[in-house]
């Protein structure tokens, strides 16, 4: 007698002859049908599930591909617990006090950072005059939906490619020199901008005093800046944001333009003011490594590339890898004045150029990149297509939206770009 629950293989095979069963046509047909159902049905269930979660079928193939990058609240190595990492992220280290901003995040589980390209407020040029005629505000110059996005993110950054001053003299022999009234720095407040990059080839257009006036004007407007300072220590120091939900972001700004031994845009030294130059990027890489050691999500905002071309150059290619290998989590580029590709370099997203944002009257494709950091370590990147035209910039819609998105996807073979602009590695 067999015990209850006991499996007797010999007795079971006496009842059912597997070999004879498999020789029957109806059995073969059943097994083939079952295999087809499994092959088609199971993936379909996952797609439907993803669709319900996102509410948009276009996003579903990519929604599960957001890469997990250690951010401020996450341990950067297995030996450190998440609690220890979160504590380390919240610490303001000695020497970082003057460069750290403690902010509230709009959501308890995420932090959002927005990036856009070049802006210009010089009233000697049409776009600067447009801001002046608007009453030194972004209203009516920047489209309302873009303003809502800029104001809605927790941290918003643009490339400030001019000096704020009423003094100084234009750099001799330079074709274009840009200077705006210090009072116009308040336009940044109306745009929702929290931090600007000053490491570029126009911050020093009107000499040292105008350069110093620029930093003072931004201080007065309550707008942080990176990539410039009275000394190289100040210019190269990361700007930190610590959020009330336990994350830390570091923003490092540097320029490799102009590529000369004695550039017009002076590099900061131990005793003199200037920008953070990185044609030799050894100090930049050191700063990236230091910020990662402090459990920050590290953004490198870099001025590089060749103007007016969508093709990246060899220095962009080489430095992107070096910066990624040093530990950067995200690289955002400016200078070419046009959009360039988005790619992943050793797993690190690189936006090679965001182009002009609101810089002149030309009709050009542009956009924003919105980065969402989640407390579980995942990072979402979204490209928001926009059009600069007639001294305004507005979010692209309809056929223009599809065209800009498709052209960005075509020049970026290393990524997936879904119908909502969400970016993931291919």
Structural description of this entry:
The chain is α/β, with parallel strands linked by helices and 426 residues long. It folds into two domains: 9-54; 65-425, Metallo-dependent phosphatases (Purple Acid Phosphatase, chain A, domain 2, 4-Layer Sandwich). Helix content is 31%, strand content 24%. The chain has twelve helices and 21 strands. It has helices spanning 9-15, 18-22, 25-54, 82-90, 126-133, 144-152, 186-191, 207-221, 232-236, 282-293, 314-326, 398-410, and strands spanning 100-103, 110-119, 155-160, 163-164, 179-180, 195-197, 224-226, 228-229, 239-243, 248-255, 274-275, 297-303, 330-334, 342-345, 348-351, 356-358, 364-374, 379-389, 392-395, 415-417, 422-425. Strands 2, 3, 6, 7, 16, 17, 18, 19, 20 and 21 form a ten-stranded mixed β-sheet that branches. It is globular and about 50 Å long. The N and C termini lie far apart (61 Å). Mean pLDDT is 85; it is low at 1-22 and 40-80.
CATH architecture of the largest domain: 4-Layer Sandwich
Determine the mean pLDDT.
Answer: 85
The DSSP helix count reads 12
How many strand segments?
Answer: 21
- Structural class based on helices, strands and sheet pairing: alpha/beta
Helix content: 25-40%
Poorly predicted runs: 1-22, 40-80
- How many distinct domains? 2
Q: Give the end-to-end Cα distance, rounded to a whole number of Å.
A: 61 Å
Biggest β-sheet strands, sense, barrel: 10 strands, mixed
Shape designation: globular
What is the CATH class of the largest domain?
Alpha Beta
Beta strand %:
15-25%
Q: Identify the CATH homologous superfamily of the largest domain.
A: Metallo-dependent phosphatases
Determine the CATH topology of the largest domain. Purple Acid Phosphatase, chain A, domain 2
